Amino acid sequence: MKLSSSQFHQFLCAIILILLELLPVYKASYHDYSDALSKCILFFEGQRSGFLPEDQRMSWRGNSGLSDGWMVNADLTGGYYDAGDNVKFGFPMAFTTTMLAWSVVEFGNYMPPAELRNALVAIRWSTDYLLETVSQPNRIFVQVGDPILDHNCWERPEDMDTARTVYTVDSPNPASDVAGETAAALAASSLAFRSFDPVYAETLLRTAIRVFDFADSYRGAYSDNANIRDGVCPFYCDFDGYQDELLWGAAWLRRASQDDSYLNYIQNNGKTLGADDNINEFGWDNKHAGLNVLVSKEVMDGNMYSLQSYKASADSFMCTLIPESSYSHIEYTPGGLIYKPGGSNLQHATTITFLLLVYANYLEKSGQTVNCGSISASPALLRGVAKRQVDYILGDNPKGMSYMVGYSDYFPQYIHHRGSSLPSIKDHPQFIACTEGSVYFNSSTPNPNVLVGAVVGGPGEDDVYDDNRAEFRQSEPTTYINAPFVGALAYFVANPS
């Protein structure tokens, strides 16, 4: 039977409607990356410890931790609470700082001027604190706050009355991981500040050199020290060894100083410090994939063939991320999110997305692609993988939810965060004691204070997300989820398509 043109048109429309009904329902994939970037940086104001400045924009927060460090004759005020608690953990804070600084170093020129300024302010809130943690010779303060006591309370940071224990490592005891990451943070930040505050940048670099010497001279993991182990473990124990932080710190010092001694260090110590190990991880505890990407810039910019093994590892890592590649072995959820087992999955998605974009820029500048066996991974392909992750986090997912608080109309309302879930000290100035906060934790009412920009731990391997304060692996935001996301969003502000 021959169909008329109008019948054929009706038939075609019916087929299209049936096909559309079979597709998963996602929100429209237009995103306001500028708005998301602004909020992603604003989040850090909600995590501030110390005396808040007059231009504090997260207005429901107040001063906190003003006596931190007094028991060890040091001023350890300032810095960031790592997540939804009130402890200042030095290891993840230093990594957060490195990633904020790397975001500015690679993508600062993509940021609107106001957001570049806000990003530098966010970095400095941390670097000022990190400088204090290493202000005494051959000593590093690695943590402020007893995490056991803190985690047993549901208390606003402005009210906290648990022990503000200071965890200290003195030479010859080792802290290569925290000291190495702190050196990386200060060196990376010196690059970020170089054009804006050269005197401060020089202070950061000079201190980074000294702190790296401490890390390298007394080798070992900070969590192996018996006097602090019970305070840092299992929260931010060094599970993956300290060797990667030594290479990472040296690589950042090489980039910031252009000193050949650091180039020699990463050449000569690569094998002994395990540069070829665990190449598929990047986060606060394992720097390998990030190290390989960072060092690859030397190879591509200056034909440093002695560092070729780092670039080969970076290439290999990129190939594992591409589903179409014969080397692919990174897991994705059905909705397309990078997934790694363990808690707080979006920390993996944001760090890996950041590395994809950085590596794409390095490849493009040197006119290269990556050979992934069956396919060639171009800069555009890597950016496409990264964009799918960013868009998923902002709402293009099976749930249609933005996993960034305050972005879009549908985002988590019950995040695992003390300050957000308890009434603000501005609205409820009366003291709320340790156990009195439980009524707010168990409340079925959404959090009264919106922690704008916070990216939560995110959904599980099945794309399911339970908006529930008790499900902390999914509902708790952290600084080290947001920090690399700043760089990723900055790239897409300038390159939305």
UniProtKB/TrEMBL annotation:
GO terms for biological process: cellulose catabolic process. Coiled coil: none annotated. Pfam families: Glyco_hydro_9. One of its GO terms (molecular function) is cellulase activity. SUPFAM superfamilies: Six-hairpin glycosidases. Residues 1-28 form the signal peptide. Residues 33-489 form the Glycoside hydrolase family domain. InterPro entries: 6-hairpin_glycosidase_sf (IPR008928), 6hp_glycosidase-like_sf (IPR012341), Glyco_hydro_9 (IPR001701), Glyco_hydro_9_Asp/Glu_AS (IPR033126), Glyco_hydro_9_His_AS (IPR018221). Its EC number is 3.2.1.4. Keywords: Carbohydrate metabolism, Cellulose degradation, Glycosidase, Hydrolase, Polysaccharide degradation, Signal. The active site is at 416, 467, 476. It is an enzyme of class 3 (hydrolase). The keyword DNA damage does not apply. It catalyses: Endohydrolysis of (1->4)-beta-D-glucosidic linkages in cellulose, lichenin and cereal beta-D-glucans. Belongs to the glycosyl hydrolase 9 (cellulase E) family. This is Endoglucanase. It comes from Cinchona calisaya.
